[in-house]
Amino acid sequence: MPRLRLRLPHWRGSRSSTPLLISTIGTQITGYFLFLYKYIRKRGYRWFSKFELVKDFIVDLLYKRRGKYSRPFLHFGIITLVFVVITFGPLVLDQRRQEQQGQFSSGILQTAYAYGSDLSTTQSEEVSNFRGGEIQVHRVQDGETLSSIASLYNLKVETIMWENNLEKTAKLKPGQELRILPIDGVRHKVSRGETIYSLAKKYGLGEDPADAQRIVNYPFNEYKNSETFELAIGQTLLIPDGVKPTDSTQLQGPVFAVKLTPDAGTVSANGSFIWPAAGRITQGFTGYHPGFDIANRDGGPILAADSGTVIAAGWDTTGYGNRIMVDHANGYITLYGHLSVIQVQPGQRVSRGNVLGKMGSTGHSTGTHLHFEIRRGGVRENPGNYLK
Question: What CATH number is attached to the domain comprising 191?
Answer without folding.
Answer: 3.10.350
